[in-house]
Amino acid sequence: MTKVSLGKLRPGSVGRVESITGESSIRRRLREMGVIAGQEIKVVRVAPLGDPIDVELMGYHLSLRRAEAAGVLVEVES
Amino acid sequence: MVHQAISLAAAEVGVRYTIVDISGGRGLRGHLRGMGLREGAEVELIAAADQNGPVTMLLGDSRIAVGSGMARKIKVKEAVWAEKPIRVAVAGNPNSGKTTVFNNLTGARQHVGNYPGVTVEKKEGTARLGERTIRFTDLPGTYSLTPYSPEELVARRFLLDEKPDVVVDVVDASNLERNLYLATQLMELGVKLVLVFNMSDLAKARGQAIDHERLSGLLGVPIVPTVGNRNRGTRELLETIVKVADGQLASRPRFVGYGRDIDAEIDKIERYLTEHGALTSVAPTRWLTLKLLEGDDEVCEMVRTRFDMDGELDELVAASRKHLHMHFGDEPEALIADRRYGFISGACREAVARSPERRHNVSDGIDKVVTNRWLGLPIFAAVMFVMFKAVFALGDVGIGWCEQGMEALGGWLGGVLPQGGLVQSLIVDGIVAGVGNVLVFLPLVVLLFLIIAFLEDTGYMARAAFVMDKVMHSIGLHGRSFIPMLLGFGCSLPAVMATRTLAGRRDRLTTMLVVPLMSCGAKLPVYLLFAGVFFGGAGAGSSVVWSLYVLGMVLAVLMALVFRKTLLRGPTEPLVMELPPYRMPTLKGVFIHMWERAWLYIKRAGTIIFLFSIAMWVLLNLPRNNALRQSYNARITAAEQTGESEEAIAAIKNEKAAQMMKRSIAGSIGRSVAPALKPLGLDDWKICTALLSGLVAKEVVVSTIGQTYAVGQETDEESGSLRDRIAHDPFFAGSRLKAYTLMVFVLLYVPCMVAVAVIKRESGSWKWAVLAAGYTTVLAYLVSLVVYQGGRLLGLG
Questions:
Q1: Which of B354, B372, B388 represents a domain boundary (last residue)?
Q2: N or C: which end of chain A has fewer CB within 10 A?
Q3: Of B127, B88, B136, B97, whose CA–CA distance to B235 is shortest?
Q4: CA B793/CA B469 separation, integer angstroms
Q5: Concatenated DSSP letters for B105-165?
């Protein structure tokens, strides 16, 4: 198991949320969208211009910029 | 409170009842009917039946007494309850199909307004079930009930202040866990909640079997499954709402358990609040407690100013928050959110069976193409191209019809009203022509709204924002800002209104301010006229028009950057946006969506333009120079008598119109402003007066130029004689540079007054409207100056 930021994951990889850091309004927004500790997240794809990214969690798709994703620390199987 | 039918014999004095049923033989029923006692009639008891005595009641103005035997055969219900409408608030996540459910519930009985003080739309509608009236208020779609966005704040305030009888939360059943997060917050608010599991067919298709009864038991609230886009479950929902409102069906939301440590802190604060009777009329104590622990700005502020003067509670809360932070190593907000999700996933584990999920559903398949690395942008460009092609091609046809309609109306009024008078001129040339100038754009605007509503309802707009976000972000805006910008090519009015969909205030204002720089539909006739005269129709002409579109976009981008770096400085709004599954929109849904915007446009444009048209007519037609008019009239009469050709007479009439206009207020302003535009090469009263009239709508510039060039009013950009006059006008002297400078100026200067008024409305202050009008004019002056003087330096003059 290794810990990386969600923003660094390649499309197709899956991780489990460890912690969220960053500005409180962004953390709040992420939380209410279901990005909470223990949640499984899959990076599905990257937008044509390289940002934002499209992730899947709880069976739905969420898009967020790499800047926002950088604060989400996930555990991945190494 | 159960309001069942009771017999009249058991009814109470002083209460109004509605008769719901009369049993017994035909003879008895006929007899009672003869007295006016029939189903649906309202009676008020004056004296009740004691022992076997008669019941006396008031029916309308007459007193009626019936024997106790008869009274027993009459079933009544409390009338007050049958009369009083049930007030229901409809909450739900965006993309949960909330709007569809609302439309199903209320049908066409809808009314759109605004929540007081904010530009958040408030939709209301009514439904009837039997004799009951149910009044629905559609709350804005939100993911949660924090006070950090205007939508959420509005929803929360409505629930707390209006205290609706029942709250309906529309949940996307195929995306249960995230959708239930809002439900937990509503449960904590202590409202009578009914959960609607919408898109239950989709949930089934995705391999989920939801045990509604079990889940309903676990949450303590009734659940009604629906399929919104097929209008299934609507009746059941209405019945459930009535039952819950009447207390026949319980809705007692379970409290989320937060675990021993957090619960202990909750208890501490809750006890304090209860003991001090704090704000109990405002909100449930438990909810207040949770909000205090979460550090909710609004609730903390309210408690501070309205209750906790000595700061005792503040200390208590701070201590609890600190304790929890130390204990769990995370902030209380996060802990509470975690527990809520824990509660949801616990309930779902017990009541939802999931067969191995079919990973690759249709929506994912579409996204593989639409948001593909290489195809994403070309597809976006193609969609936009097709949209504008369709709008302008089909819209043109409709505009033609509208113009004919307006002309016919003007012609008819012209015939009916007294000839040649001021009244006729005011109504026909001022109001009908003025309002018509804007309303002829209606087909174009409606069509654009229709296509955008379709793209939004399918889910494509979220993808477009996803694909475009990087570009928009680089100028300090949000991916979603591109929709208003796009609308700006049609008309600034809907574009400015569309900024409502943006979450951040700075994004909203910046977008609003730069939208008028886009080449809207009304600027096109001006381009076509001057490009046609000076650059020829095809080839050079169309590249000139094209260059103006590009110039507008480039300046919009630059100005957005400028605003984000100066007046509206601050961090960019984060992008955390759901990509909802693609859906086939319903025809009804798309049309309602379109109609709401179109109606708003008609109302705004209609009223503002009405007043402004009158003002502009005054400027263009007054003061009346009688001496001048009479001398021209004499010339016309003379020409008619001597049998001059019709062209000659028309020429005199046109010259008269031009001379009159030159001496009007607008003409005087035009003449006095002209010198200021000398550096731009536009120091001609004809042009300046036309520019002034363009404040109504930019396309009016063309018809005013028609008048000032004395070719008459009935001119459009294709008029041959107008083109001829402009081409030979000594002022232009064939200068392409002057013509181009003029077009640039028209592109940029003050957006029309309707747009300015809408910016005032949407931004909530005149400050931004004045800024929008001011900066665009300064920009127009500067850019035109650069174009003209630069062109002269290059020897293009």
A1: B354
A2: C
A3: B127
A4: 40
A5: HHTT-EEEEE-TTS--EEEEEEEEETTEEEEEEEPPP-S---SSSHHHHHHHHHHHHH--S
ipTM of the complex: 0.96
Task: Show which of residues 171-190 on chain B sit within 8 Å of chain A, judged by CB atoms.
Answer: 174-175, 177-178, 181
The range of the structural domain enclosing residue B698 comes to: 601-749
Q: What is the residue-wise DSSP string for B173-239?
A: GGGHHHHHHHHHHHHHTT--EEEEEESHHHHHHTTEEE-HHHHHHHHTS-EEE-BGGGTBSHHHHHH
Distances in Å between the Cα of B125 and the Cα atoms of B90, B186, B600 are 11, 22, 17
CATH code at B288? 1.10.287.1770
Of chain A residues 13-72, which have a CB less than 8 A from chain B?
A: 19-20, 23, 25-34, 36-39, 44-52, 54, 58-65, 67-68
- Same domain for B54 and B92? no
What residue segments make up the domains of chain A, in order of their start?
A: 2-76
Q: Do B178 and A36 touch (CB under 8 A)?
A: no
Q: How far is Cα B476 from Cα B571, in angstroms, rounded to an integer?
A: 8
Residues B207 and B93 in one domain: yes
| CATH, residue B241 | 3.40.50.300
The length of chain A in residues reads: 78
Count other Cβ atoms within 10 Å, centred on residue B782. Answer: 12
Residue B756, both tokens = 């300015």
pLDDT grade for B358, boundaries at 50, 70 and 90? low
Q: Taking CB atoms and an 8 Å limit, are A26 and B178 in contact across chains?
A: no
Residues B335 and B453: their CA atoms lie apart, in Å, by 39
Rg (CA), chain B: 34
The mean per-residue pLDDT over the stretch B322-343 comes to: 91
Is B792 part of a structural domain of the chain?
A: no
- pLDDT of amino acid B538: 62
Return the CATH superfamily for domain A2-76.
Ferrous iron transport protein A (FeoA) (2.30.30.90)
> Quick one: CA torsion of B624, B625, B631, B632, rounded to 10 degrees?
-50
The answer to pTM > 0.90 is no
Inside any domain, residue B463: no
What is the per-residue pLDDT across B284-320, written as a single tens digit (0 to 9) for each?
889 999 999 999 988 888 888 887 667 888 899 999 9
Q: State how far the Cα of B40 lies from the Cα of B6, in Å rounded to an integer.
A: 14
Alpha carbon B206 to its chain centroid, in Å, reads 33
